[in-house]
């Protein structure tokens, strides 16, 4: 019998985040990212996603 996967509480979303991206950053960059995310009240992943969309928009690349 297959077990049902239970997800914990979290913010509901229309877009499922099922792809993992690992990246290497230096300690200073990590600290900046962490502080900024904490100040905004969101995850570091959300900050990175917003940054990517901002770069794409600035470069006028279609999604």
UniProtKB/TrEMBL annotation:
SUPFAM superfamilies cross-referenced by the UniProt entry: Ribbon-helix-helix (SSF47598)
InterPro entries: Ribbon_hlx_hlx (IPR010985)
The protein, known as: Ribbon-helix-helix protein, CopG family
Highest taxon above the source species: Bacteria
Source organism per UniProt: Coprococcus ammoniilyticus
